[in-house]
Amino acid sequence: MIKQKDLILYSGLIILGLAAPYLFSAFKVQLTYLCVLIVLAMTWNLQGGEMGYNSFGNILFYGLGMYLTASVQVGMFFPLAEWTESGGEKTFVHTTAQYFQGIGVGLLVSAIVPAIVAGAIGYAILGLRGHYFAICTLGLGIAAGEIAGGIEIIGAGQGFTTPPFPAEIVDAEARGKFFYFLSFALLIGTFVFVKYIYGSRFRLILNAIRDNEDKAEAMGIQTMKYKIVGWMVSAFFCGLAGGIMGGLIGYIDSTDVAFDGREMGVFMVLMAILGGKGTLWGPVIGATLFHFFKEGLWTLILGWQYVALGVLIVVIVVYFPEGLMGWLREKYPERFGEVIDDKDRKAQVELK
Amino acid sequence: MDFLIFKAPMLMVQASLDGILLGILFALIAYGMALQWGVMNIINIAQGDLVILGGYIAYTMYLAGIHPAWGVIVSPIIMFFVGWALYKLVINKVVDRDLFISILATFGIAIVFQQLMNFIFGADVVVAQSEYGTTMLFDNSVTLPNSKIFSAFISVLYAIALVIYMKKSRLGRAIRATAQNARAAKILGVDTEKVYAATFGINAALCGIAGALISITLTLHPYVGLPYTVRSFMIVIVAGLGNLPAVAVSGMGLGLFEEFADYILGTEFRIGAVFMLLVFILVYRRFKLSKKREYLK
Fold first, then answer.
1. Is the ipTM of this complex over 0.90?
2. Cβ separation of B282 and A136 shorter than 8 Å?
């Protein structure tokens, strides 16, 4: 049962989200980015925060989704090889109906296939623990980028131009609005699903795996099964996010856009940590803060943005590993439903 | 199988020699990684970027008119202090924390290094010309640049020097004691903080040597650091910590793998093959251990 306070909060946020493209008409692309970033941070948090498997490789599913959506959208109506070879988007033109059919089917594929891939490799990869898992997934993400950069049919090194938005729609705002609402729908879907997970037994199992996997196993939990399901959930939403971003950016490069471990792959980890790992709202707040910071400062420090990003990573990781929510939780534990009796508090003060 | 390499045996010899000489260089970097991993229990993602920075030091000397081979002496000295400073700034705060924290923090350092090198040295692929010429073998069908032989020789020399230093010197003993048990070493009067800083400095110095050698044998580019990190990580997990002969052998094995992958899969898949090999090695180890209900630690 949703409490009344929550109801006001959620409906307020949804109304804000629906009104945002009209209120901030010039920032539609940025708002779309924000939605996608929040989705990525939330799904990363499912593993990194809840399950304790810090993955650098969720970018794999993001990039996979991006390539799949674009390939399906083109391949459904035109020969894919000719399209990618040299400017096929000039010879073949999607009609309006074809475009939307294509992107619909493409997104469906880009959600299901990454989830299947995650399930298929999950048994092998998720048997690794701790930093081995982190490095292995890092390798997977980069290998995917390098390999995609060598495959001819998806454009190899020269990139893949996704189908342009149908020219028959005269409304100049339509493209921005379409992608914004698509990503907003994805955001709501992800949030509802993650919130459902947070109230379920599944989350407790994930937490048990994080806290002590051996004990969880000894208690009779089939940890591998739950780990794979957790990864598949992440892959599902990452794939969708990638598909939407591919359509929005309009151009897919193997290492700079799709399997962009240097940017997106790090961003999702950073955002989740900034907001607070293992909390529902942490990644949302972290992603929002990060996006505002990035867009606000990126233009001011042009050329130095990656230096700033690197320094930011070091500072956040070294000094705020608990994130914003963790800090708040320590400061106001009552707000998070934790009861601390006076004896404990006195003992804490004496300790300090 | 109609790959060129299987038809021409001389190509096979060429690839093997190239691979082994390259592998010795990788082993040197991996030894540094094993050292810091064993002593400080951190995984340094910026390892490859330290290598590239060392290479750029030698390249700068080359631009200034000094022969780049002197870089194998100058570069480690400068890199030692870079490593020391890096330890004092960041690494000392992640030493006794979770390994993932060290991975992420050094990832941040790696990004900073890449960008700074990009600003200072530009985004072009550069190489310092050593002008050592080439050695021709087997009726001129196998060409071996002398710089590669030189780099393998220097790597072996430094590795032997380091092993003797670690065995005989006071600091070396302190480092080994700290690796065995940091707390006990502390109780017995070893300044572990200093040992950690020195370890990281020595690791950076090893990277500096390797970088200087890479600047004359291979190419330098600000963004090619990560593959070197992954290679050294791979060598360390195959060879184990603190086992120098095994590090050397698996380094050469990796070099061989790369050269053959280059011929068989094509150059565009070379880096991809390295990263896939990492995944396969980890997965293989995981399945092997899971038979005994164990996992990689």
1. no
2. yes
